[in-house]
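ok, trying the design again with the full structure, not the truncated one.
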């Protein structure tokens, strides 16, 4: 692995100038390395950061990757890391014209990393330097603790998706110069939701009332707001005072709670475990936004590499080569999801729709199909609009807001399904739906969405840790429960309980009979089984898992 030569660096600097001319924004400094495919295999399990710590599962992943490469050799184009400065890796046999395309793609990623608000907590960090310090700490502890270190890493990694990412992100815009924000937090997050269990309409009304106080009274807004709160809820002050110093019931971060409150972890001889847990948690927190913006990030980079490459005067004669490579990267599959292709097409669609004024109230209220087809205000604001989208959304909001019927129809998208052809004993694929809501649902089901598990402070004591799974329609994966809870029991230092929902019964819908190998009639395509759920409690005590109904 080595830095790119001066000739190639000059190409990159030229790409930076052209990218800035169209509005992309990124730091001046960046590091580019050329690597072999085998280097990529070595780095991939470490999320491409050379300075990250090693652990024993890493060896398994590398061996698995090498075996796969021997059977199916590939040629990765690039990988870019959100560090300061940004680091990117390139295959060592790329021609200049391909580097131009790849550099534009990388600059799109860097612009996204440094301007999307979901990466806000990473903007001031030198993660490569922090990772190097962490790696040295891990190496020192491994020499002292041996394999116990790797077990603590694995136990911590089993719950590193339960970090309070949005809570961490919210701190960036939270006032810290006085204690008044804690009173507001308690009122809106705990008092109204947990104690009073108000309806959504009443909750929104209170938010609007506070915002109006801010407009009317400015610095005195909070005191004015709580005057009426005290009249309506005389018990509020006493409850707020009582809550001070207690762990919050809202947004309990399982990893952080264990580090703060586990007597086992906080024993002097075990504090090294706390250090390891903090390293794992910080690493997870750093990569959370990348997992949650995959479609947007790849779509944004693909949009700009295609847009800027075709304008570049240095690629004359390689348009066909570009078309071949670009089509392989951004082709929309008939079955499955390509984030590059979907994200890029969505940005193109949003830009065109904004230029035509199709996000205006006038267009949204229009029902006539012919008028909607001809609607065009020629506003020329599309590119400014997609820059705002890039700044403010993540994948869920992006998909939920902008996948609509016109987009699905224009791009000939559909939801596919398969049925067993019993005569030939093969799977037959068929178009299940061309409806935008069905396609949106399919995409959302593939987005990263970890289970919402928090610590129930009231039920947690010295003898047990009580975890609450806030059920959202999807059960926990049974095969992971035992090992994960075993790790949590070890880190907590005692009995661990998990309340969740399991399937009680499944009632299959009645469907019309069909011929062998044929899909169901269109009227039955959306029929889903009726599932009855029940609350259960899993208990891990002395390495034994038990289950009981609640």
């Amino acid at each position: 692995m080595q830095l790119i030569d001066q000739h190639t660096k000059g190409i990159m600097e030229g790409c930076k100038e052209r990218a800035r001319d169209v509005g992309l924004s990124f730091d001046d400094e960046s590091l580019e390395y050329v690597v072999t495919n085998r280097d990529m295999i070595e780095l991939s399990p470490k999320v491409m950061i050379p300075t990250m710590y090693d652990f024993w599962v890493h060896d398994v992943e590398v061996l698995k990757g090498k075996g796969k490469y021997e059977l199916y050799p590939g040629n990765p184009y690039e990988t870019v890391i959100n560090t300061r400065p940004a680091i990117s890796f390139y295959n060592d046999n790329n021609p200049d014209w391909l580097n131009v395309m790849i550099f534009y793609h990388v600059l799109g990623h860097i612009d996204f990393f440094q301007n999307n608000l979901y990466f806000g907590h990473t903007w001031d960090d030198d993660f490569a330097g922090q990772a190097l310090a962490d790696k040295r700490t891990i190496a020192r502890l491994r020499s002292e603790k041996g394999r116990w270190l790797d077990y603590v890493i694995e136990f911590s990694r089993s719950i590193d998706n339960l970090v309070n990412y949005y809570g961490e992100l919210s701190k960036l815009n939270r006032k810290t110069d006085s204690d008044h924000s804690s009173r507001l937090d308690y009122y809106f997050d705990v008092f109204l939701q947990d104690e009073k269990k108000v309806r959504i309409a009443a909750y929104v009304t209170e938010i609007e009332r506070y915002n109006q106080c801010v407009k009317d009274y400015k610095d005195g807004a909070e005191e004015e707001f709580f005057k009426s709160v005290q009249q309506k809820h005389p018990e509020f002050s006493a409850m707020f005072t009582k809550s001070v110093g207690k762990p919050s019931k809202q947004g309990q971060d399982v990893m952080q709670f264990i580090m703060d409150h586990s007597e086992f972890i906080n024993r002097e001889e075990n504090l090294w475990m706390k250090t390891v847990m903090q390293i794992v948690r910080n690493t997870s927190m750093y990569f959370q936004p990348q997992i949650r913006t995959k479609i947007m990030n790849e779509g944004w980079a693909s949009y700009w590499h295609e847009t800027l490459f075709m304008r570049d005067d240095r690629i004359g004669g390689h348009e066909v080569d570009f078309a071949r490579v670009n089509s392989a990267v951004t082709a929309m599959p008939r079955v499955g999801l390509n984030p590059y292709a979907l994200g890029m097409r969505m940005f193109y669609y949003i830009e065109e729709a904004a230029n035509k004024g199709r996000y205006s109230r006038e267009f949204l209220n229009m029902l006539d199909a012919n008028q909607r087809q001809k609607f065009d205000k020629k506003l020329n604001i599309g590119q400014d609009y997609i820059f705002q989208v890039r700044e403010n959304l993540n994948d869920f909001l992006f998909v939920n807001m902008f996948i609509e019927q016109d987009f699905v129809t224009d791009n000939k998208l559909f939801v596919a399904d398969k049925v067993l052809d019993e005569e030939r004993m093969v799977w037959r694929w068929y178009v299940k739906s061309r409806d935008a809501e069905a396609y949106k649902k399919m995409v959302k089901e593939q987005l990263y969405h970890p289970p919402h598990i928090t610590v129930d402070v009231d039920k947690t004591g010295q003898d047990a840790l009580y975890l609450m799974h806030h059920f959202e329609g999807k059960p926990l994966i049974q095969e992971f429960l035992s090992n994960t809870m075993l790790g949590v029991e070890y880190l907590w230092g005692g009995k661990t309980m998990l309340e969740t929902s399991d399937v009680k019964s499944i009632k299959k819908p009645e469907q019309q009979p069909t011929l062998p190998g044929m899909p169901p009639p269109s009227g039955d395509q959306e029929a889903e089984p009726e599932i009855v759920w029940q609350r259960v409690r899993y208990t891990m005590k002395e390495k034994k898992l038990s289950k009981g109904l609640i």
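Keeping the full-length input from now on. Residues 271-292 form the longest helix (22 residues).
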